[in-house]
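Why do we bother with a discrete structure alphabet at all? Because it lets us treat a fold like text: something you can write down, compare, and reason about line by line. To make this less abstract, here is a complete entry for DUF1360 domain-containing protein. Read it the way you would read a sentence in a foreign language you are learning: slowly, and without expecting to understand everything at once.
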Amino acid sequence: MPPISEQVAWLFILAIPIACVAWTVTHEEIFREPREFCVQKSKSHRSIGIRKFFYLFTCEYCFSHYVTIAFLFLADYKLLFMDWRGYVIGGFALVWIANVYMSLFGFIRVGMKETKMDADLDELRLKEAKKKMGM
């Protein structure tokens, strides 16, 4: 069994690609069309099972569980126990850390968008002021 420090290091490292994949699929422009299709199906399909299935691709928290399952087996990651319990504990820990990463990224990204919008507004006001002054 690897030392707990190594297991925790792997926890924080493996959560990075999990967060990256989950965020990209559920938020980024490259997956916009499939995501819009999934949103439409998750709201309008008559079968509750189908609606829930398509919802999984629109929610970063939900989708991160499935990405985590793939990474658990890809990396053979276990936390605290070296049997099936290690997969369960490691899986939920990875989901939690990945979602902390995504929340931080979302918070930073919103701040960056606000800063850009403020700069764009300032630039627009400056152009309007120059027009009024006849410059």
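What the structure line is telling us, in plain words: The two ends are 73 Å apart (CA to CA). The chain has a mean pLDDT of 90.
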